[in-house]
Each structure stands twice: as C-alpha cells, then as structure tokens.
TrEMBL record:
UniProt keywords, alphabetically: FAD, Flavoprotein, Glycoprotein, Lyase, Oxidoreductase, Signal
Xref: Gene3D superfamilies: FAD/NAD(P)-binding domain
Ranges where the Prenylcysteine lyase domain occurs: 146-473
Region Disordered, annotated ranges: 475-494
UniProt name for this protein: Farnesylcysteine lyase
Family: Belongs to the prenylcysteine oxidase family.
Biased composition (Polar residues): 483-494
A Pfam family that the UniProt record links to this protein: NAD_binding_8
Swiss-Prot/TrEMBL cofactor(s): FAD
GO molecular function: lyase activity; oxidoreductase activity
Naturally occurring in which organism (per UniProt): Abeliophyllum distichum
Signal peptide residues on this chain, from the entry's feature table: 1-24
Length: 494
C-alpha cells in the first residue's frame, strides 16, 4: 500500500509538471535580504528538480530600495578594515546558511569572541558584579588554564542552573531541526502558528523567557545576570521577550559560532546572482494593487510591474506601502539597535578601574536605567589602540562617548530597525496576506529573528507558492507534502 505522504508527494510532482507558464507567473519579491534571496533560490531550485524542462516560475524580479543587497546583513569599514555591522553570527546547526556557504564557495570564519580565554564582565551601571579572568598571553597552556579557571568560577556563581539552561536551549534547537526533515514528513505550512505547533515550538511564544526559565529551574541570579546580558546583546531586550526568541538568543551565545569571510551579505548576493533574477536596486515599491488576476506594483521610479505572485520579504512595520485591497496584520513595533563603532581607547576610570587591561574584552550589562548601553566588545586590537563595537537602545551621543573613551580616532554610528520588539503571548501576521498570492516571509519574525529563521520561513514560502499555483485544487492543507527526500541527505541537497 502506498503511504499518504507518498501520494501527496506524487500529487505535488503532477501539479508542477502540468502547470503551464504564462506571463502571470512572474514573481516579484520586495526586499533583497536573506529572506528574499532565499525565496528566489528555493523557487528556482525546486522548479529545476521537479520540472527541469519547463519551470512553473517565470521571471523573478527583486526590488531593493537601497543600492546594495543584503538587507540587515551589512558591513562597516573602520580605518580600512571591514566588520559586520548588522546580523553577524550563525549557529553551527544553521543548515541552510551552511549549505548556502558551500553552494556559493564562500569562506567561513570563527569570531574571536568565541575563544573561552577572552574575558567577560557584567556591568550594572556602577560596578562589575561579575568578571572573569583575563590573560594577554598567547601561550596555549596559559589560555587553557585561564579557560578552566573561568569555568570553575562561573559554576560556583551559577551552579547547576547552567546545565538547566543548556538543556532548555538544546530541546528548543532539536525541535527547530525538524524544519530540515524530508518532504514526506514535513508539511507545507500556510500559517506561522501551524508551523510552530508542528515543531513543538508554539508554546514558547505564549510566555516570556523569564517565565520559561523559572519553570525550567534556573536561579534568579543566572536569569538577572548572564541570561539578561545575552538577550540584551542579541535582541536589545530583557528577559521579558517571548520564550522562543529568548531560547534562540541563548543558542546564539554558544560555541561553534561562525560568519562569512568578507561579510554575511554575500549569501544574499550569491543566491540572487545564481537564481536568474532581475534585480532592481534603488527602487522602492510604493503600492501593490490586486486586479483580479495580477498584482500591479508601482515604484518610486514611476514604473509599474505586473506580477502573478508577490512576496514581501522585508518587515512591513516601518514601510509605507499602499496595499489595495488593504491588508490586515497585527500591530508590531520594531526594536531599534544602535551599533556604534569606535577606534580608540576606553577609559578605565569610567568603569572604576586603574588600567585599560583590567577592562574585560566583552562588557555586558544588566537591565538598569543607569546603563546607557547594552554591550561593548573589542573587535580588533591594534598596536596602540583598539576597534570597539557598542550596542545600545538609544543613539550614543558624542558627549556620552567621551565619557567612555579616553581617545577616539574614528566613530561610525548605525541605526538598525533590527528585529521585532518581542512580548508574550505573540500574535502573528499571516503568511498569505490576501488569500491569493501575496506572501509575507517576515511573519515568522515574531517567533524569532535570525538569518536562519528567515531562510527557514522563505523555504516554506517557496513551497507554499509552488503548491498553490494550480487553481481549482485545494492546496492550502498542511497535509500537502513535496516530493520524497531523505532527511539524512537534505542538508547537502538544498
């Protein structure tokens, strides 16, 4: 007997094989970040596999209001050296990003701050409440001893709560890994809620991270200090963020983290270059109108584009796109993170210290009105000074920077509308904004916002588009699966 999953997989193949491309299957994507680039990639990839002779997808247009692709993946140049300015780190189990890297022949690099010998200090606005040992020695034996001493010290402060925190993160990551399963066991999802419930992640969006960690048995001290430091660095928010966003944030503080040599934006650029896309730079979409069988997109350049499918792959929250008919999405605020890059020297006196070497390599902060920044970290040590990266919720004025620094040679300030302002319980925008063919990748960001979660949402959107292109057949059910794929081979296939 043929299993239900195999039947639905064959149905999916049949529909792709019998869809006749017309002018109406032009796909228009608004936004050239990792989400938009991933939608284009997966549309081309799956069409090429299942319909090699004639693709069900026609021309793909990508519209980017800026002059470069990448969205919130971007770099900054300080004194001739390049550093990540936006989305900066990837997890070792971010399989889509890893596969993009192999597919595009990009080079991985490991951030310096993953080195356990580097020092951490937790600042409460008046003093360091916790500070690890630091050694400037480059001898491996010395670094190992310092790392061991720091491990013992952190255990004495936080105890077995550290293992409970690790277990909480591990369970969440393992549930998230279900999104890489083969198509026979992984449905196409037409809502964020459905997607989260299937993976066992939805309940984490109904409580705050603080509530989840208390239930997991973590000590108040660990939550108020180390966990808070991590959420302030990764999401610019406190432990009042939703549990899933918090778990993702904690996962982003573990070992094995990596990025792309030369800038993470190259993933988006490479996917776009290889997906047979017509790229429209410096072209912002002002309006999207559905005329019954086609979407008309009007841009700031006075041009109009007819699209059978339209994908919004950028947060709608601070855009002024006029949708006709109007769409309805839950109100959402974006959390702005101000990234300030400084080449110079920090002032030991500001931190109540005597020597510059006494300042930890990474200064994290507790949740307090007395703290004007979220974190300060060393990006590079030069011969006579250093390059630092500061995260803050508000702009860093020059007067404030002069309190932190004894000298400043160069200062660059960037304001990122970085991610949603999380709260629990979360409410989600729909993946399908109008019941037709207007899709929203960033609806998933209310669950968690990372490069990889954008890619996971984009892959589902691509499958959703392909499964719904044939009219007259109910393809919205989550029971619809795509062609068979071996889960053990999926990571190298995509």
């Amino acid at each position: 007997m043929i299993k239900h999953g195999r039947i639905t997989a064959l149905v999916f193949c049949f529909l792709l094989l019998h869809f006749s491309p017309t002018h109406s299957n032009t796909v228009c994507i608004i936004g050239s970040g990792i989400g938009g680039a991933s939608v284009a990639h997966f549309l081309r990839h799956y069409s090429a596999i299942y319909h090699p002779s004639q693709s069900p997808i026609g021309q793909i247009n990508i519209f980017e209001r800026n002059g470069v692709v990448g969205g919130r993946m971007a770099t900054v140049t300080v004194s001739g050296e390049t550093f990540e300015a936006g989305a900066s780190i990837l997890h070792p189990k971010n399989y889509h990003a890893l596969n993009y890297t192999k597919y595009l022949n990009l080079q991985l690099k490991t951030p310096k701050l993953t080195d356990d010998s580097l020092s951490l200090g937790i600042w409460d606005g008046h003093k360091f409440v916790y500070k690890t040992f630091n050694s400037k020695s480059k001898l491996p034996i010395v670094q190992r001893l310092v790392s061991l001493a720091n491990s013992i010290m952190i255990f004495f402060r936080y105890g077995f709560s550290l293992f409970r925190m690790s277990s909480f993160v591990e369970v969440t990551v393992n549930n998230f890994l279900r999104y890489y399963e083969g198509f026979n066991s992984r449905p196409v999802f037409d809502s964020v809620e459905e997607m989260l419930k299937w993976a066992g992640l939805y309940n984490l969006t109904t409580q705050t991270l603080g509530e989840e960690l208390v239930e997991a048995g973590l000590s108040p001290l660990l939550i108020q200090e180390l966990v808070t430091v991590i959420t302030r660095i990764n999401y610019g928010q406190s432990v009042n963020i939703s549990g899933l966003a918090g778990a993702v944030s904690l996962a982003g503080s573990g070992g094995g983290l990596w990025s792309i040599e030369g800038g993470n934006w190259q993933m988006a650029a490479g996917l776009i270059n290889r997906s047979d896309v017509v790229l429209h730079l410096h072209e912002e979409i002002e309006s999207v109108s559905y005329l019954g069988d086609v979407y008309v997109l009007n841009s700031t350049k006075g041009k109009s584009y007819n699209c059978g499918v339209t994908v919004v792959a950028t947060p709608l929250d601070e855009l002024n796109i006029d949708f006709n008919p109007r769409i309805s999405v839950p109100p959402r605020k974006l959390q702005h993170t101000h990234a300030t890059f400084v080449r110079g020297l920090l002032s030991p006196a500001y931190f109540g210290l005597n020597l510059l070497s006494d300042i930890p390599d990474l200064v994290g902060t507790k949740e307090s009105p007395d703290v004007p920044f979220s974190s300060i970290s060393i990006l590079k040590q030069h011969e006579n000074d250093m390059t630092y990266k500061i995260f803050s919720r508000e702009p860093m004025t020059d007067a404030l920077l002069d309190k932190f620094f004894s000298s400043r040679k160069e200062t660059i300030k960037i304001n990122w509308a970085a991610y949603p302002h999380y709260h629990a319980p979360e409410k989600f925008a729909p993946f399908i904004l109008d019941g037709q063919h207007l899709y929203y990748v960033n609806a998933f960001e209310n669950a968690a916002s990372t490069m990889e979660t954008s890619a996971v949402a984009a892959e589902n959107i691509a499958r959703l588009i392909l499964s719904r292109l044939s009219s007259g057949v109910d393809l919205s059910s989550s029971n619809l699966t795509s062609v068979d794929s071996n889960p053990s081979e999926l990571h190298s296939e995509l």
